[in-house]
Write a structure and sequence with these properties.
alpha+beta; Beta-galactosidase, Chain A, domain 5; 13 helices
Length: 545
Amino acid sequence: MDNQRTLLFAALAFIAVLIWQAWQKDYVLPQQIQQQVQSEGVNSSADVPNVAKSEPLPTGVNQETEPKDLALNGGVIEVITDVYELKIDKVGGNIVNLYLTQYPDTKGLEETVQLLNNTPSKTFVVESGLIVQNGESPNHHALWSASDSQYVMTGDELRVPLTWKNESGIEVTKTYVFSKGSYKVDVETSIENNGSNSWSAREYLQIKRNDYADKKANSMIYTYTGGVLYTDEDKYQKIDFDDMEDENLSQEATGGWAGMIQHYFGVAWVPEKENNYTYYTKALSAGKYVIGAYSPMTVVEPGQRKTINSVLFAGPKLQEQLKEIAPGLELMVDYGKLTIIAEPIFWLLSFFYDFVGNWGVAIIMVTFTIKALFFKLSEKSYKSMAHMKLVQPRIVALKERYGDDKQQLNKAMMELYKTEKINPLSGCLPILIQIPVFIALYWTLLESVELRQAPFALWIDNLSAADPYFILPVIYGITMFFQQRLNPAPVDPMQKKVMQMLPIMFTGFFAFFPAGLVLYWIVNNLLTIAQQTVIMKRIESGKEK
């Protein structure tokens, strides 16, 4: 009975979480976004990083401004590579528009995923520049120049240089270096002092985003959207938009990176690992948020030239590429608290995929593998349920005998368990041990961009989307129904009714789940039914106790 109660509570808790997440996405977030858009241009705030009070920021360029048509600013530079189509605004020299050409926004259509954008309702841009103690500086509001308005990759590398000069003889060149097949962008900031006085500046790298909702996201499934930070000392941290509202982060670290992530995709700045950078966050006006890092002061003497190297990542969260860019960057794939379990599961998925070339088949093979690993633990639980089912008629008889006298009923049931050598709790521990693995697998299937829009077979041409014909959810509901029939029925009538409704309820919920997740649960249920059936028959025949 305790097994049934545990499963019931777990199922109801799961449903409650789904309802809460759906309400947050469908009601709370749209309201917040509307308020943010309405407040554009009001209560403007500095969007250049704050440094020590003794080092004032340049005047006249530190106010958040409403995004305008790119052509009205300073003009744009179009860049086309084998994986990107993007635009760089000459005002600021920043990437303000970026499409991932290898990732269709909707399967079967030509439109590709737009990762970066610069509009009042949907702001997601990367910014960088230099700030000085006094005078003008090439920050992300300054006007930069370029020799061409369009750059197209024809080889293994594409360099896009932008230049800023002042009357004092300072020339700064910011060069974006794109590599073939890579979502890593090297950013070289070269400072040449042709003047007569020394010149000092700090480099800053930041990402600006508002908390907009993805209209195409599954409202039944929550994935994290917000800031992330990694340092050698504190490792991986999530800094959501509420955290930024509550407090401005200021943390010094050597190495590390700062980023913004969403489902499947992310953006991150990786500063020079040799220098001690200050990582910061800031909540701006109009519901915009900034996370970034600024460097120590760089001094360039007359006649000298110095170059600061940083790395920008903008693209799909492909773990193998992320590992090569920076330590800990693969943690942008948000498996949550169970990353230590999820990562081996993803490795196993990839291992099987390399052999079969189908992510759906790989999911089935992983399900078999996990079921095999927990075979003995599951067996103990199923044996307990089988014994409980055999004594179920006697428990019903006891309930009829004692009626509402729960004290006497519980006493009689304990005596029955003792006589039959049944431990009603013996099946709970195996279930509890397996829960972290099942949750980790859930997040692995949900978060891995490799499975996005991946086909399986027949009508399932996209494992990351819901079954268009609801066939898999119905099959799941049927398997859940038959699995329940193998378990002892709850004595309590209300519990019994709720348990009977669960297959219908979960069929409805799973209708909106990605097909890959539903496929896993179907295979898992089928294996469970097979294992329980064999155990039940052996116990009923007396071959096993």
